[in-house]
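Translate sequence into structure tokens.
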Amino acid sequence: MKRPIGIFDSGVGGLTVFKAIRAAFPEEDLLYFGDTARVPYGPKSHNTIIEYSVQNARFLLQKGIKILIVACNTSAAVSLDELCHLTNIPIIGVITPGAEEALRSTRNHRIGVIGTEGTVRSQAYTRAISKLMPDAVVFSKSCPLFVPLVEEGWTDHPVAKAVVHEYLHELQQSDIDTLVLGCTHYPLLRDLISQVMGNQVTLVDSAVAITAYLKALLPANTDGKSGKDIFYVSDNEDKFEQIAKRILDKDIAQLRRVRLFESWFE
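Result follows.
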């Protein structure tokens, strides 16, 4: 029996990770959980983020997954150590792949990181980058309105353009040549971010970098059967389906809402 790969995020943003993994591994079964009832995670306390992340992971572990992908940067920044106590299967967060990709991209060692309040507050990217490149200078900026803009589907709205410009104005003056999109929602604003930062700044999407990690863990699948996609959300399945169709360029065949009962996580 083929065991699936599990992916969780606070909402729809992790679908950018899902899409990259599906493209690289067409024969793998993928399970995705979006905690749409409790998005966003960024403004919440560390304890709450850890609690939610553990609950999400336990749900996917009950489905018999073989690898867990923590697609939420906030969760990966705060709760990865706690999640590793739950299981012996491989757990991959988005922080390290994103940091490593940024170091491959930078030429002047001046790197920007944008993320949720929780991710920026944790300094997880700064630590990961500095560990690998001690002379790197990291400029971090929290962009808390990016997630609700994406969840609302306003990725090309004039309001989104104004918000992106307002948040990134300081980074424009910092002489960075690389910018880490430190939230899986942010690649959905990639065009607007690129317009503001200019072509001289390389944007790093950790979703792509994660696939390299998976290739090192997964043996070649030669059964020739297309993998199954199953999606779970904790709320707003209709809205999730609409946004998912836009991100994935296809309809979702299997989408289920799960109810947030205490017993669900035990």
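Note: Strands lie at 5-9, 30-34, 67-70, 91-93, 110-115, 137-142, 178-182, 202-204, 229-233, 255-257.
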